[in-house]
Every structure is written in structure tokens, then in C-alpha cells.
Amino acid sequence: MKRIRLPTQRASTAQGRRVALQQPLLLSPAAACTAKTPALAPPARRHAGSLSQRPDAKHVSFPGAIKSAFSNTLRFEQPSTYPALATYRAVDQHGVAVDPSFVPDLADDAVVELYRDMLTVSIMDLIMFDAQRQGRLSFYMVSAGEEAVSVATASALEKEDVIFCQYREQGVFRQRGFTLADFMNQLFANRKDPGKGRNMPVHYGSKELNIHTISSPLATQLPQASGAAYALKIQRMQDPSIPPRVVAAYFGEGAASEGDFHAALNIAATRSCPVIFICRNNGYAISTPTLEQYRGDGIASRGLGYGIETIRVDGNDFWAVREATKKARELALQDGGKPVLIEAMTYRVSHHSTSDDSFAYRARVEVEDWKRRDNPIARLRKWMEAKGCWDEAKEKEARESIRREVLKAFSEAEREKKPPIRSMFEDIYEDLTPDLQEQMKALKRQIEQYPDEYDVGEFVEGAGSLGR
Amino acid sequence: MTGRSIRSFSSVMARVQALQSRAVASFQSPQQPHGRLYSTHPPNAKLNLPTDYSTTPLLAHASQTALANPELPPEARNGTTKRMNLFQAVNDALSISLAEDESVMIFGEDVAFGGVFRCTGKLADTYGGDRVFNTPLTEQGIIGFAIGVAAEGMRPVAEIQFADYVYPAFDQLVNEAAKFRYRDGTCGRGVGGMTVRMPCGGVGHGALYHSQSPESLFTHIPGLRVIMPRSPLQAKGLLLAAIRSNDPCIFMEPKILYRAAVEQVPTVPYTLPLSKAEVLKEGTDVTIISYGQPLYKCMAAIREAEEKLGISVELIDLRTIYPWDKTTVFESVRKTGRCMVVHEAMVNAGVGAEIAAAIQEDPDTFFRMEAPVLRVAGWSIHTPLVYEAFNVPDVARIYDNITKILQY
């Protein structure tokens, strides 16, 4: 590992006071990266013992708060005296641009394609929700109301960027190239499912699209995203021919209560990781409303606490989300890498999942009001119609053709066989352990001895995959 | 627009259905995870049939059967019963605790509206939001909070929404709850008032993160009492005992039984003994030890084995998985000479290993053994969605192992 030894450095305080560092710095690889642009580089490592408190200083020089001015007023900060962080909008709910500096950076056909991605997700959601109700698959989660957050953020990322999702980001998969067949093969856990039939529905994953496979536990993906971002940063340091890459990590406001969320932001900040944390604040964690989830100013305020550049955006505004993510990606790659937090405000129009009936804890009228008031798909449609690149006929045609495509993929995937039974024992370890080989044989013997007791017909090769 | 989409979709779906002429499950209540069961039984199966909870002898279908339970206190035996499923019995025990003891409080994710499995239904309305409330979504926070509540002398009942999600709370459970009294020494404080409830086990379609049965991770920790009830009557008595117990208790509820297991449950408050196994059925040739849902499969396998092989099998419900009732188990195994342990969790380093080791360490029991102790358990894998029927112990595998243990 390369280490760079620098001569004695100076660290500056807010007031321009200079405190000489006593020791030459042995820079970590992270710092080596920032050292390329010394003007912007924050001090790579503060040595507590090197900060001296000058007599009559007006600022604290404790190692834990080097820019804090002394105050002679005994006063506790009141969160309520700070205004809530603003929510950025580029386009209002009527589809009219409200940010005077906003210039759409996409050609009409590109916008239409992204709109179709949102539409596809929303139509697929309706069909699969009903299919679950009919017993055709065990579980489903829709993302109604949150299509813009997924599709617009994804549209501002590069294919090489690495993504960690929570579980309600089918729009990210769709935008990056997940086909309807890909969705359906996973949902029906058939032989074409890369998850080999092991995971619950909606736990998609794609190596080709650089999206890690979804894991049900909440927020576990967030510190992983910090680590992955650090890996990308180090890899580019070691091989500058690799294009600059960021990690994007999605989560809900409920997941932000998990310890892992806090760990993720803090470690990403301290190690200057190029990661974009994207919060879908949809108002509910299953039944728990945000009022019982937190008392601060949303999730955005926490980014500031961790020293992370943060923006809150209107999650129903496709353009605001896209613009914010584009800028966030730029920021994340500046200064050798740093984390950025986006809090996208949305509303979970749907039930949490097919296992949930949200009218047990919220009024129908609340949901109906939201649907009527604003909707990310309707808003972008209004914008497109005003622009003249969309109309009722196109809408009708798009909805009908998407529905046909979804149903075609649905029935094809449902007909496919399940993966070989052997898959249940594989990938626990890199190789099948002697224990697992024995267990596989035992299962084969059991099935052969009691053929009427096991249904192996829908699996590729039946019991044959368990060994000859 | 949305409504139109659903209606027009339905007709298309009907055509797809007709085309494929597949059986379609009836609409189920959206209150709990459900839907397509990947573990449906094969058409010609004689052993691996769905458990018939309406006839199983493990549930008290009649009031008299429930009241005849000798472990019940006289006031329960002389009282009335009510038909309840497992989540209603849990709810009943929680309600009794809140009513009889002001120091009891109940919290966790989504408990205020009744919990995702309805175990805490109406409790917030009845007993108020100060003692029954939602927490933010943080398992380590919930358990740490419960430890603090208990350390100051109250009796928290914390809910973890799924056993699969308890791991962020492991530090609090292993390093704090289990060690609290030990490290405090003569200072004498403890967190024994704490009970942690969590749904566990497979339901047929829970896959990696809604199926786990992590009891052996807790039975390895001295200081925690680990309990798993098999039925509504048991759940009420054991949960009340756990809440009143002065040791921290992990109360694991097999979620497949929440609605499926229905029986007559005494209406008055009662406790059932912790760390005491129960002989559910006496027998002379083989002892089967299990707990939770697999007991029903054991019962079906035993019926078949007794009929086909002319033998008699003893069935023991461990109930408290640690500290466990060695006396009852050893006595039984000394009598039968053959022992099999059945659990859903993976076989490696599981509860079966502990029981088998204890049996062979006890000279009086070991010398009576006619065969090695067998374990019938989940394979050493995670719980995969479409293969669950091949992973959890089923009636045919238990039956097959009974024949094996007899042939040894």
C-alpha cells in the first residue's frame, strides 16, 4: 500500500488561525487521494495533542470541536427555533417549472422513456398485487407514489456505479435495464431467477446492472454501501484508468432509525466515501407514522450532524430528484470522495406489502387525498403534455402495451420450472462441505424411499440434481 | 385511473388463468403474511399431509380437556374456557399482565395498532399509550430500552417483529441482559423483569428472512431463559410465567400457529412452569423430544409408526429450551432406551446436539441406550423459499427416523 510522507502541514481554523502540527503526517490512502488537490483538502488526520489552546483564544480548541467559539450565554439550542430544511422543487404539481435556473437536460424521447419506466413499474405493481391476492405468488410490494424517486435517481447515475437497494426500488432496476422477464423470473422464483429460487419475491439482484441483491433486514445495506464506496475509491487510486464511480444506497425513513444508518453516515464521512444515501421518506414504516419514528427535522437534518452535504427534495418531482442526484454524484466525486445525503419526500400510497392492510391504521381519505393532490407520474405527464411530447392517445397506447408486455412476461415466467433442488445446498460455502454432501445424499435417499411424499416434479431434474 | 386499471386487469388475468387452468388460492385476510404456499403437499402423500389442527390431540378441542390439565391451578380448573388461537392467547396473557401489574409495559415496532400478527390488538386503547406504544424501528434500541426499563424495576415486554430481525439486539441481549445481575453482584440489581417476544419459524414462504428459528443462539447464553409454546393454552400460561419471572426471558412464538392452532383456553390468569418439560404422550420404545410446531408433525409420524410397526412412542415437549428439564428427559430415555430430537432450526450446533450430549454424559441414562440419539432437523443451510418442504423436518422424515432408530 502506498503511503505518502509529507512535510509538516498546517491546519486552519475557521478564523484563519493557524496551528502548527507538531508531527509530520503519515497519510492514509484516503488522504493521499485528497492530497492531489491540496487547496480543497481538509486536514487528513487531526492529532489531538497537536492542537494547542492559545491564551485568551476566542475559540475552543478541544480536539472534538475545533471551530467552536466560546460563548458567555448559557443557552440550549432549541430545534424548534431552526426552520425546517427547505424542499427543492424544479417543477410544481401542475407540471410547471418553478426553478428559474432549471433547464431540462434530456431530449424529449429520453424523458418519454423514463416516464415509461415509471409507468411500467406502476402497472406491474397493480398486476402483481392482484396476482398475489389470487394466490399466484406468495408476496409482493408495490411502490406507488415513489416511482419518481427510484427512476429519476437511477437516471442520474452511471452504469458503473454500484447500487444497494432496500426493497421498494423496482424503478431503479427498471431504469438500469431490468426487463419484465427479469422481474417475473425472480417473482416466480423459477429456474431463470439468479437468486436460484431462494429469496422471497421482490428480492431482485443483478450483477450486470451493478445492483446488489436485496436483503430484507433494514439498513444493513447502508454501512455496506459506505464500505463499497471506499473500495471503489481505493481501486481508482490504485488504477486511475478505472472511471470514477459512486455508490448509491436507498432506504426509508423507518430504516434510518436503525443503528446501521448512523454507523453508515458516520463511517462514510470519516473515511470520505463517495456514496449517495437516498432516503425515501414516505411517511410510514409499516404502521408507524413519522411522528413516532423521529422528532427531528426529517432525515436530512441528520446528514448535517454527521458533516455530510445534504438536500431535501420533493420526491414527487421527477426533475427535482434527477437534478439533485446529478449534483450529488458530482459532489460525491469531489475532493477525493465524500458522502451526500438526499431526502426525497414522498407518500406511501399503497399498503406496506401484500401482508398489510394499511386501513387498519390510517384513514382511507388520507390516502385518497394524497392520490388526488399529487402523484409523481401525473406530474411528469403534465410537464410532458405542456411540452408537447405526450398526449392522451400516447398515454392510452403506452398503458395498454405495457400491460400486455407485463402479462406476457407473467405467464411465461409462471410456466417455467423451479431451479434444481440441489441449489438449496449450494453457495452456503464456496464448495459443498462434507456435511452438506451427506445431507444432500440423505435428502435424496428420503425422496427415493418415499416418492409419494415429495413433489419434485416442478423442479428441474426432479430429485436427480441431488446426485447420481 | 387506478380503479379502472384493476378492473380491466382482472379480466385479462381471468383469461391467463383459464389458459393455464391452475388452482387459485382463495382470497385471504391481508393481516398476515400468506399467499401461495410453496410447500403444498403432493397428491398421493400419506404422511406429508398438512397438519389438521382441528383434530390433533395436541390441542384441547373441548373445554373439559383444557380444564383437566393437571398443571393448572384450581381456580383455572374450576373456571371457564374460551376458544382462542395462538395470537389471541398471547394477547390475553399480555392484557392480563397489563391489568394486574402497573409495572408491565409493552412496546415494539407497530405494536400500537395491534402488531403485524395482531398479538397486541386493542392493548393500547385499553391500557393507554404510556404503557403500550410503538418504538422507532431499531431492535438494538428496543432491547436496550427494555433493559433500562427493567433495571429500574419495571416489567417490560418487548416485541421484536420477526426473530429474523433480532440480531442488531444481540449485544444488548448477550452482553447486557444476560450478564446484568452477574456483574452487579451484591449491588443486587437485575433485568429479570424483561421478556422479549418474537415470532419465529417457517410458514412455507418466508425464505431467508421471515423463517428463522434462532433459539440455539440464545440457549448458548447463560442467563437467558428461552421458551417456545406449542399451543394457545401453553402460550398463555408460559407467557404469564415469563413476564412474572425474575430472569430475562426470550419467548419465541411459532408464527405458523398464530391462526392455525385453536383450542379452549382457561379464562382466568394462570401460569405454567418454566424449565419444565411435559410428556404429551407416554410410550415405551422410543422417546421423541421436540418443541413448537414440529410437535404436530411428530404426533402424525408417531400415529403412523405405532399403527404400522406396533410400537409405542413417548413424546416430550421441552417447552423451555434452556435451562431445560433434564430430569423428565432422562427418565423417559432410561425407560425407552431410544431417543430422537426434532427441531426446525438447522442441525449443526442446535438444541439436538445439547440434548444428545447431555444424555450420553449421564451414566444412568447412557447405559440404558439401545441406539445412538438421532436428530431430525433443518439441514445446515439458510431457509430457501421454494425448497422449504425439503428442509424442515416433515412427517415422512420423522417416521423414517423412527424406523431407523428401531432397527439399530
TrEMBL record, chain A:
Q: Does the keyword Metal-binding apply?
A: yes
Using the record's annotation, list all stretches that form the Dehydrogenase E1 component domain: 116-421
Its job? The branched-chain alpha-keto dehydrogenase complex catalyzes the overall conversion of alpha-keto acids to acyl-CoA and CO(2). It contains multiple copies of three enzymatic components: branched-chain alpha-keto acid decarboxylase (E1), lipoamide acyltransferase (E2) and lipoamide dehydrogenase (E3).
| Principal location listed in the UniProt entry | mitochondrion
Which InterPro entries does this UniProt record tie to the protein? Answer: Alpha-ketoacid_DH_E1_comp, DH_E1, THDP-binding
Task: Give compartment(s).
Answer: Mitochondrion matrix
State a GO cellular component annotated for this protein: mitochondrial matrix
Which cofactors, by name?
Answer: thiamine diphosphate
Judging by the UniProt lineage, the source's domain of life is Eukaryota
Name the family: Belongs to the BCKDHA family.
Transmembrane segments annotated in the record for this chain: none
Q: Which GO terms describe its biological process?
A: branched-chain amino acid catabolic process
Q: Which PANTHER family does the record match to this protein?
A: 2-OXOISOVALERATE DEHYDROGENASE SUBUNIT ALPHA, MITOCHONDRIAL
**Could you identify this protein by its name?**
2-oxoisovalerate dehydrogenase subunit alpha
Enzyme Commission number(s): 1.2.4.4
Keywords in UniProt for this one? Metal-binding, Mitochondrion, Oxidoreductase, Potassium, Thiamine pyrophosphate, Transit peptide
The record ties this protein, via CDD domains, to: TPP_E1_PDC_ADC_BCADC
Any one GO molecular function term: metal ion binding
Which Pfam families does the entry mention?
Answer: E1_dh
Q: Which reaction does it catalyse?
A: N(6)-[(R)-lipoyl]-L-lysyl-[protein] + 3-methyl-2-oxobutanoate + H(+) = N(6)-[(R)-S(8)-2-methylpropanoyldihydrolipoyl]-L-lysyl-[protein] + CO2
TrEMBL record, chain B:
Q: Which domain of life is it from?
A: Eukaryota
Membrane-spanning regions, if any?
none
Keyword annotations for this protein, in alphabetical order, are: Oxidoreductase
Q: Which GO terms describe its molecular function?
A: branched-chain 2-oxo acid dehydrogenase activity
An individual GO BP term = branched-chain amino acid catabolic process
Annotated spans, Disordered:
24-51
Q: Which cofactor does it need?
A: thiamine diphosphate
* Record domain Transketolase-like pyrimidine-binding: where: 84-260
What are its E.C. numbers? 1.2.4.4
Q: Is Oxidoreductase one of the keywords UniProt gives this record?
A: yes
Q: What class of enzyme is it?
A: oxidoreductase
What reaction does this catalyse? Answer: N(6)-[(R)-lipoyl]-L-lysyl-[protein] + 3-methyl-2-oxobutanoate + H(+) = N(6)-[(R)-S(8)-2-methylpropanoyldihydrolipoyl]-L-lysyl-[protein] + CO2
Pfam families named in the record = Transket_pyr, Transketolase_C
Gene3D superfamilies cross-referenced by the UniProt entry: 3.40.50.920, 3.40.50.970
Q: Which InterPro entries match?
A: THDP-binding, Transketo_C/PFOR_II, Transketolase-like_Pyr-bd, Transketolase_C
The record's annotation in PANTHER family points to: 2-OXOISOVALERATE DEHYDROGENASE SUBUNIT BETA, MITOCHONDRIAL, 2-OXOISOVALERATE DEHYDROGENASE SUBUNIT BETA-RELATED
Q: What is this protein called?
A: 3-methyl-2-oxobutanoate dehydrogenase (2-methylpropanoyl-transferring)
Task: Write down the species.
Answer: Lasiosphaeria hispida
